[in-house]
Design goal:
about 625 residues, alpha/beta, Nucleotidyltransferase, domain 5, 29 strands, globular, binds zinc ion
Length: about 625
């Protein structure tokens, strides 16, 4: 070895490590444990080339903020782990990793980070084991990774941090305890490090009005992954509106349509040329900044949807859209998780006066089209208010009766009237009668125990106590047991439910999700009812630095909206076999004349057969 060679070798050994990028580090050292992700073994950035620039922006000089607004299935978590690995090996310093809740942190640390460290020798050598590293704290020479949930102000406020990793920021609470916006709290901790601090923010977005990641994205360079068209050579992002797909529709039971997507291709918006999925995924592509000035402020932001991901199948994506397109909540999920875009809700266009004017004449108490009846009951201190609603296919609904039962929910006389309502036979056009299949009764307020106990005594009548939950995600109806005595209780996702009612009220064409109302004055659908139905609005408001959606009353009496929601949840919360109901009500069985003699009529099994909890 010559002295020059030795010199070169020595130089290369002492080459500043910061010259290495995150993707170079990952390609050289990173091993995937195969836990939580489908892949195992050596990491290859080329597998999903869009990840290179995102990861490398973290090691790029002059860039302090990196924002990624991404679809699910785009490899977000693995990129996070690569950046953490890079910090441990190349750029050590104090790090903070923030996830929405403590559980998220623990799961990530145990199920992703720990196996990745174990599988990657370069990390295994550096991360201290034993007492020096815990689930929420990993120490290594020159630094540590502290992990916390965004809900905890303590975890966000202690020491100065050089590298801040914020995951799923749209899932953070508006405030960490009473301390304010967790994103602002965490960012403050990087101030000490000035221009050497790095802040990484990743999330699937939620609503356009309140999304944190969307606002961060707008502040940054707004880079889109754009592919080269094989026909015209121009660059374009792969937008969902440019995906052309063919489908086969099959009407299956319960009025549901099933979709089979047979082909999906991309149409170049510049020249109209078509490209196959595999061609798009292999086409030369690059990130194009639509707000390049943000680079001067050191903020790069990226958006990517599932159509660019090697882990997503286009036909399956299109099917997800078809399954979601008629339901605003499912459509929101499609926008957020598949397109990586914030969702913009259409404001309800329902106007109480117009709903009042469109009331219609029914030929019977229960008009044709209704296959099942549900009841919602609201519990007030001195009365119950209820609505009887009929349901047909595609969630088309008919108001049947809105009324009041005077009295307290802990008085026997009140429950006698509830029994009358539950046992009542509602006349149909063909002369048969039907009873309520399910009733949901509000157990909130002052009569929780009385409502739960009375409902549970009447289980055979399928009346169930309910309680509202103010979360804005999760299932619409959740069956649980009341904490005391193991009695039945259902939890309703009130915001999601009321939003659906307001959406339905805004539909103006009879058919799917349309709401019918009778013009018979005795049925209770007066002007006040409709003002009460459209009594609340959702508005984005700024609270302690973060935007949240807030429900505001625009009319004081909001019971009709709540009760409509209860009745709808009673319909949506069970596997109701509409075909079975239809056969019984309109099928071969002989016509049962309505009981007009006033003598109590026994249940004829018309209803119970089709309802399953
Ligand atoms: Zn083209």
């Amino acid at each position: 070895m010559t002295i020059q060679e030795l010199g070169r070798m020595t130089m290369s050994m002492f080459k500043p490590v910061s010259d290495m990028t995150v993707s170079e580090w990952a390609d050289k050292y990173r091993r995937l444990a195969g836990s939580g992700s489908s892949e195992q073994g050596k990491w290859h950035t080329d597998r999903a080339p869009y990840q290179r620039e995102i990861m490398d922006s973290f090691s790029q000089r002059g860039v302090h903020d990196v924002t990624c607004m991404m679809a699910a299935q785009t490899g977000k978590t693995v990129m996070f782990s690569n950046m953490l690995g890079y910090v441990i090996c190349v750029r050590p310093g104090p790090c903070l990793l923030v996830m929405p809740a403590e559980d998220d942190v623990d799961n990530y640390s145990k199920e992703r980070l720990a196996p990745d460290i174990e599988a990657t020798p370069a990390l295994r050598e550096r991360v201290f084991s034993g007492n020096e590293s815990t689930i929420r704290m990993k120490r290594f020479p020159g630094g540590f990774i502290s992990m916390t949930g965004a809900i905890s102000p303590g975890g966000l406020k202690s020491r100065p941090i050089r590298n801040l990793f914020m995951d799923e920021v749209d899932g953070y609470p508006a405030s960490a305890g009473v301390e304010g916006d967790p994103v602002l709290l965490a960012k403050k901790r990087t101030q000490t490090f000035g221009s050497t601090a790095k802040r990484m923010c990743m999330s699937t977005p939620t609503l356009k009005t309140t999304s944190r990641i969307y606002r961060e994205f707008l502040h940054g360079t707004q880079e889109e992954w754009e592919i080269t068209c094989k026909h015209c050579g121009e660059h374009s992002p792969i937008l969902f509106e440019d995906i052309r797909f063919e489908k086969i529709e099959t009407i299956v039971s319960e009025g549901q349509t099933e979709y089979d997507v047979t082909s999906a291709k991309w149409r170049c918006p510049k020249c109209g040329g078509m490209m196959e999925e595999w061609e798009v995924k292999r086409a030369p592509a690059k990130w194009v900044a639509h707000n390049p000035d943000a680079l001067k402020r050191g903020h790069r932001s990226f958006h990517i949807n599932a159509f660019a991901s090697p882990w997503a199948d286009w036909k399956a994506e299109c099917k997800k859209f078809l399954d979601a397109k008629d339901d605003p909540e499912m459509l929101k999920t499609f926008y957020n998780l598949e397109l990586g875009l914030p969702f913009e809700r259409k404001e309800t266009s329902a106007i109480p006066d117009q709903l009042f004017l469109r009331r219609e004449h029914y030929n019977a108490e229960v008009p044709n089209g209704v296959l099942v009846i549900t009841i919602g009951i609201d519990t007030q201190d001195n009365r119950l208010e209820y609505e009887v609603k009929g349901w047909g296919r595609d969630e088309e609904s008919w108001g049947i009766q809105y009324g009041v039962i005077p009295g307290r929910a802990d008085e026997e006389s009140t429950w006698e009237m509830v029994d009358e309502l539950l046992d009542r036979d509602w006349r149909m056009e063909n002369g048969k009668t039907m009873r309520a299949a399910v009733t949901f009764m509000d157990a909130g307020g002052h009569f929780f125990d009385a409502v739960v106990e009375h409902c549970n005594q009447r289980r055979t009548k399928r009346i169930y106590p309910i309680r509202g939950d103010n979360k804005d995600s999760g299932p619409l109806v959740h069956h649980t047991k009341s904490t005391k005595k193991g009695l039945n209780l259902f939890i309703l996702n009130v915001f999601v439910g009321k939003r659906a009612v307001l959406y339905n009220a805004g539909i103006t064409t009879p058919g799917k999700r349309y709401m019918h109302f009778p013009d018979d004055e005795e049925k209770g659908y007066d002007e006040n009812y409709f003002r009460g139905l459209i009594s609340e609005q959702v508005r984005p408001v700024k609270k302690r630095g973060a935007y949240v959606e807030e429900w505001t009353k625009i009319y004081e009496r909001n019971e009709p909206l709540d009760i409509n929601n209860y009745a709808r949840c009673a319909f949506k919360g069970f596997k109701i076999d509409l075909n079975a109901f239809e056969r019984r009500l309109y099928g071969e069985t002989k016509v049962i004349p309505a009981d007009t003699s006033g003598r109590p009529q026994k249940p004829k099994g018309l209803i119970s057969g089709g309802v399953k909890i």
